[in-house]
Amino acid sequence: MAVTIDETNGAGAVHKALSLMLALASDGGETPAARIAEELGLPASSARRLVAAMVREDILMRLERGHYAAGPALARLGNAASLHARLAAAARAPMRRLAQVGGEAAVHLGVLEGEMVTYLAKQSASQAFAETRTGTQLEAYCTGIGKMLLACLPEAEREAFLKAGSFIPITASTITEPARLRAQLRETRTRGHALDDAEMFEGLRCIAVPVIIGTEPVAAISLSRHAAWDQRRMARDVARLETCAGQIAQIMSRRRPSPSAG
């Protein structure tokens, strides 16, 4: 770290709090708070008190034990803690756990922006999924995340999308007829998960579920495989995705976690 805390400074308390807050917010939850505090030269007891206070005030949010990211209060101060950045930070650990048990699969988090899906995070235990990366934008009508979020739109917005869209076949499997896509989105909304059967990339299939905070579907997560699903694997992976989505929503909604800097 470039900044080291001088506790003898007359403004030491403010300096300590700001230095720790900025370091944790910039790190995004990758590094344990205890290690960041140590690099700043801040005693562990002081770090725990400061982190506890910042969590209580929603300046920080707890991701998992000892890991913190910028919280809702910081989001109101600027783009450094935007919804998308907080979603990506909150999703990191749950997505990593899902990728580790998912075998040859990739896990993505994405949001709907206009007619496109923006991918906010990606986790994979394999190097075999080079088709996507964080920051990629892909068409919503032929991706699992896109279909899930389109299905969650109010009917009037969904109809406007279907009437305005120009649906180009990306692969031989891409659904381009508005009537078929409309029926698929209705089915997706009813069953609660979306399917992309090699519609964006040849041989790559995915399923997706929404991330719901309160009552609002703010994002979706997907699991992609270079293989077809049988019914048993499909049910298992949908359940795993729903658990992961619930964990992300819980982290995003957490208001008063029990604080710990270690």
UniProtKB/TrEMBL annotation:
Q: Which GO terms describe its molecular function?
A: DNA binding; DNA-binding transcription factor activity
Whether Transcription counts among this entry's keywords is yes
Q: Which residue numbers delimit the HTH iclR-type domain?
A: 11-72
Alphabetic keyword roster:
DNA-binding, Transcription, Transcription regulation
Q: Quick one: a GO biological-process term for this protein?
A: negative regulation of DNA-templated transcription
Classification via PROSITE patterns: HTH_ICLR, ICLR_ED
What Pfam family is a match, any one? IclR_C
> Where is the IclR-ED domain positioned along the sequence?
73-254
Checking Gene3D superfamilies in the record gives: 3.30.450.40, Winged helix-like DNA-binding domain superfamily/Winged helix DNA-binding domain
Q: Which PANTHER family match?
A: HELIX-TURN-HELIX TRANSCRIPTIONAL REGULATOR, ICLR FAMILY, HTH-TYPE TRANSCRIPTIONAL REPRESSOR ALLR
Task: State the protein's name.
Answer: IclR family transcriptional regulator
